[in-house]
Specification:
The chain has a seven-stranded mixed sheet, with helices on both faces. A five-stranded parallel sheet has the order 13-12-14-15-16, sandwiched between helices. The radius of gyration is 27 Å and the shape is elongated. By secondary structure, it is α/β, with parallel strands linked by helices. A hairpin with a 5-residue loop joins strand 8 (188-190) and strand 9. It is built from 14 helices and 16 strands. Helix 1 packs parallel to helix 5 (161-174), helix 4 (123-134) packs across helix 6 (216-225) and helix 6 (216-225) crosses helix 8. Bound molecules: cytidine-5'-triphosphate and ligand A1H0Z. Residues 49-56, 62, 64, 93, 119-123, 126, 153-155, 260, 262 line the site of cytidine-5'-triphosphate. Belongs to the IspD/TarI cytidylyltransferase family. IspD subfamily. Pathway: Protein modification; protein glycosylation.
Length: 425
């Protein structure tokens, strides 16, 4: 029985999100705005419709459960919402047949604050079921009614706290709010005979995306008044608030990352975006504090190419503090540069720490151990035997989503024999 992993670290580093991740001061200002002076912050919950079959994806598995880096797509969306500490409940609507699979995902990735409800046969019905779970007029409701409810498709994994805060703040003021994006294609209206009737002026129109947010009573009452036609064929929650609540939603410009995973190409795009984001963080671990350590040359090169390069030394007196601090920033790629030792045990200790930190539950962790060895002072076969242990250990830790590899750089120490001063010129 595998030991239950400890609860995941409370927050992912915001830089795993969209490029526009706001600074802490921006968020604090927005939070202050969301919390008018003298009034308490609104209780906020989220409803995630996740009951679709993903027909347009063209694979047997519903797209919300399709793997991205060997982890279901929906887990990334849950993680994005869990990062936002002021969302108190996350209600996910899944079909009965996927309920067990969803419970396993919640347990395996240690998702928190999640409640599950049965999905409906349409997206609107799934959302309505989610809202019912939050309404206090339901006999078996265990959740308290929020003041504001966020509605966000479970297949939109790249949602950041800033846009969530914007739509919630706007919903509190206007009653409803939704993220929008510029149209990429022009919208046209075909005539009955399949020819162009007219086209819409693209600049005057926008694509409605997610997240959206509503005063709970506004959207819940709209759904309660909904016609069956709306529930069956509608695709726009903002329209329901307008039609049944006479609320004109505030439109919030969203970032390019808010797109919905719909086709297979979207899954490939999501995977490459996630890979790119986690690879932007590198932690260089050096085996000495020497400022002339060759690892600093690598640091200079990496800093030109990456957003975040952290450096630490693995001296025993430093290991705990330095590495713990770096792990708290959710770094998933480690390059260990060893000039003083080729001791495999040091790497094992580092990998054990990474494993205990549960980092690799959410994303694969990469550890590259580089050994600079002077071939005149270190017999090759003796060191290779020692380093070959890495290969066996790598097979073992790969099962726990830690990818370990070793790199041996054999080089001659450059000596100037003293009897030949010309070498010194
Ligand atoms: N009966 C439904 C249909 C859709 N959804 C959810 O609504 C979101 C957006 O819908 P869409 O992209 O249309 O998903 P699918 O309906 O699964 O896709 P398709 O139309 O290609 O089948 C998805 O998270 C989907 O799981 C839902 O909760 N209940
Ligand atoms: O479920 P579908 O993909 O058909 O449509 C969902 C989208 O309409 C919806 O997510 C946004 O347009 C915002 O309402």
């Amino acid at each position: 029985m595998e030991p239950r992993p400890a609860a995941p670290r409370p927050r992912l580093c915001d830089s795993l999100g969209a490029d526009q991740t706001p600074s802490a001061s921006t968020l604090n200002a927005a939070r202050a705005e969301a919390r008018p002076a003298g009034r308490r912050a609104p209780a906020v919950a989220a409803v995630l419709p996740a009951g679709g079959s993903g027909e347009r994806m063209g694979v047997p598995t519903p797209k919300q459960f399709c793997p991205v880096l060997e982890r279901p797509l929906i887990s990334y969306t849950l993680q994005a919402l869990e990062r936002v500490c002021w969302i108190k409940d996350i209600v996910v609507a899944v079909t009965g047949e996927n309920m067990e699979a969803m419970k396993c995902i919640i347990q395996k990735y240690q998702h928190q604050r999640i409640s599950l409800v049965e999905a409906g046969v349409t997206r609107h019905r799934s959302i309505f079921n989610g809202l019912k779970a939050l309404a206090e007029d339901q006999p078996d409701s265990k959740l308290s009614k929020p003041e504001v409810v966020i509605i966000h498709d479970a297949v939109r994994p790249f949602v950041e706290e800033d846009v969530l805060l914007k739509v919630v703040t706007a919903a509190k003021e206007y009653g409803a709010a939704g993220a929008i994006r510029p149209l990429v294609s022009t919208v046209i209206s075909p005539s009955a005979d399949g020819c162009l009737d007219h086209s819409l002026e693209r600049a005057r129109h926008r694509a409605s995306e997610m997240p959206q947010a509503f005063l709970f009573d506004v959207i819940y009452e709209a759904y309660q008044q909904c016609s069956d036609y709306d529930l069956e064929f509608g695709t726009e929650c903002l329209q329901l608030a307008l039609k049944y609540g006479h609320i004109k939603a505030k439109l919030v410009e969203g970032s390019p990352d808010l797109w919905k995973v719909t086709y297979k190409r979207d899954l490939y795009a999501a995977e490459s975006i996630i890979k790119e984001r986690i690879s932007q963080h590198i932690c260089l671990v050096m085996d000495t504090k020497d400022e002339n350590h060759v690892g600093h040359r690598l640091e200079e090169v990496l800093k030109d190419a990456l957003n975040h390069v952290k450096v630490t030394s693995r001296l025993p007196c430093h290991t705990g503090r330095d590495l713990d601090q770096i792990m708290s920033e959710q770094c998933y790629s480690y390059v260990c540069v060893n000039v003083m030792t080729s001791d495999f045990e040091e790497i094992r200790k580092l990998v054990d720490m990474l494993e205990e930190s549960n980092l690799s539950i959410l994303y694969p962790v990469v550890v590259i151990s580089v050994y600079f060895l002077d071939y005149k002072s270190v017999p090759f076969d003796q060191k290779m035997e020692n380093l070959m242990q890495i290969r066996e250990y790598a097979k073992e830790v790969k099962k726990r989503n830690i990818l370990l590899c070793g790199l041996l750089i054999y080089y001659p120490q450059v000596f100037y024999p003293p009897q030949d001063p010309s070498c010194l010129t």
